[in-house]
# Entry
Amino acid sequence: MQNTPAVEIAGLVKRYGAKTAVDGLDLRIERGTVTAVLGPNGAGKTTTIETCEGYRRPDAGTVRVLGLDPVREAAELRPRIGVMLQAGGVYPGARAVEMLRHTAKLHAHPLDVDALVERLGLASCGRTTYRRLSGGQQQRLALAMAVVGRPELVFLDEPTAGLDPQARHATWELVRDLRRDGATVVVTTHYMDEAEQLADAVNIVDHGRVIATGSPEELCRGGAESSLHFQGPAGLDLGALAKVLPDGASALELAPGNYRVEAPMDPKLVATVTAWCAEVGVLPEKLTVQRRSLEDVFLELTGRDLRS
Ligand SMILES: Nc1ncnc2c1ncn2[C@@H]1O[C@H](COP(=O)(O)OP(=O)(O)OP(=O)(O)O)[C@@H](O)[C@H]1O
# Structure
């Protein structure tokens, strides 16, 4: 059984009335990995994850989680997985840390509750009821509840949405520790830096399907490895710039006044671009050479911005 993937989805379809939220999605998540499911709002990430958790029944296709059917074998599966939903899932009148202690007691080998409370910055809200916690505290409590039982497989749905940088990093550290302890972690996110930082494998989802899959490095390979970005007045004559660039290079105005030059990157190319700017009397501001990111990959695959 240990050889089966943590999650195996084939041809998943899920509809809400006339809306097809998931449209023939295939996904395989290996055990012991952190896997990101990355995509824009409405791509079908939450629906897919909720189907894995047994909260939604597929209209077509098969879903196996730790080798089990999440609907028919829910009783066997539930104790082995941890779930952090986008919308709480916690009784609003419950006291935060008591609730966590109670949850810990339901498991054979829970994490140390005090240490978990400390590292997630929840120590000051020991007796506060869930409804009185701030949004960020509620989110961190939901994360703690998902992991306190040391589940084999943890689903985190946008765990860091709206968190401050410190809490985001604490969350990332916790995810890394879970993997170190052998757990499989599935994270949905539309923050590409989160996927790049955390994930061994990334699945890019759009319109209810996985459109690309691989490690962040694999996905960012292919195409130009890096690009040069600068800002200047809108509407520069990129046709004229293209004439001085090497063969195969391209220049693009991503948004008014925001330019990207893609070409094999070397010091000469930077000099060529800045020389051209000098010639046309433009000061290139915020000139940077950037490694190709998952955001660029998504843009190339779909022609749209990840957060549009
Ligand atoms: N209960 C529901 N009833 C009707 N439509 C729904 C329901 N839940 C989701 N949808 C629709 O299904 C599509 C996929 O939604 P889903 O929440 O799975 O996407 P998502 O990728 O998780 O988005 P987000 O990043 O915004 O959470 C969206 O168009 C959404 O409006």
Notes: The pocket of adenosine-5'-triphosphate is lined by residues 16, 19, 21, 39, 41-47, 190 (CB under 6 Å). DSSP finds eleven helices and 13 strands in the chain. Residues 165-180 form the longest helix (16 residues).
